[in-house]
Structure formats: C-alpha cells, structure tokens
Amino acid sequence: MKSKLLDLATWLMVACALVVTAAVARREFFPAPAAAAQPDTDPRPVDNWKELAAAGQRMGPASAPVQIVEFSDFQCPFCATFAETLRKVRAKHPDRVAVLYRHYPIQEIHPYARTAALAAECAGEQGRFEAYHDRLFAQQDSIGSKAWERFAADAGVRDVDAFTRCVREERLLAKVDRDAKLAGESGIRLTPSIVIDGTLIPGALSEAELEKWITGRPR
To answer: How many Cβ atoms from other residues are within 10 Å of residue 199's Cβ?
Structure first.
C-alpha cells in the first residue's frame, strides 16, 4: 500500500512538472501579443496649414471665418457619423463655418473608398460634390454593390454619361492620391481628422466638442 502511494505521489509530481514546463515553454516561444499601438488623438499644431487649406471640395461659403479642412474616407463608419455632425454644425452657423473636404481612403480595410472618392470628384465636376458626398455617407452600406451611376442620379448629376466616362477614365484619381499623400506627410493617421486654423484634431468629435473649437478654440 505504501509503495502504491509513493508511486502515485511520484506520478503527480511528474505530471505537475510537465504542466509547468509546458506553461513556461508556451510563454517563452509563444508570448502574448503586445497591445496594438494606438494613434495619437491629441490636438497638435501643423506647419503646413496654408497648404492644407489651399485645396479640397468646399462645402459652405468661401468667406466663412472658420474653415475646417477635413480628411475623410467614404467607407469609414466614424466618418459617416462625423459627416452628420459637421452638417448640423454648418446648419447652425451657415455663414460662419465651411468645410474643405479632402480624401484619405484607407484601402487596406476599405477596398471601395478610393473609387468612391474618384466618383465624388467626378460628380464635383458638375457641381454636385456635396450631394454625392451626402448620398455616399447616407447609403454607406451600399458602397461596392450599388453602381456609381445610381448614386450620381440620386445626387442630381445631370450628365450621367459624362460622369461615367470620368469614373472610367480615372483622370481625377491623381487628385485623390495627392490628398492622401498630403495627409500622410502631415502626420494624419486617423479618419476622420480635421484641421482648424493650423491645429490638427484627429478622430470624430461630438457636436459639442466641435462647437467649442469653432467658438472658443480650446488649446
């Protein structure tokens, strides 16, 4: 009986040793993944404000004292939410606030965003950028399945044939790509991101937060 108990104790010690060894080996050879680095969301100054504000699709009056440069992606859900926030704020301050929309399609996760940006620029050639922009965000789930021409018709683009040629020829992609390149060079890593009077503010702000930047310019 004593011999059996000793054998059992020995077996248990061996089993525990094997478990501990396996745990150590797993920790050494298969370490837990490090937490993904989070982009910096703190407001910060940019050195190229004039360059950022020198182009883009303007939504609102050129004379507005507050010009917001927005870098956005038509397939980004946060961008769709923020587009509605901007619309509400512009409606409250129609003469005070304007938006300069610039493209930053993140193709790695949004495969149709770059072409959506191209289509919006083609609609812009007929003065319908903002309407097309609104349709894309309102029907974001349809991007990739709904034809660009149908978005164009919904947005009131008059010459849909010319629009189709514009999208097919891709001649305005260079403009989209210039915006994306400038975003990267300016340290922008998130969509949406806005720049107001030389200050970069990454991420989607709430309406109340955006109002503070428009009226009080918090620092």
So the answer is: 16
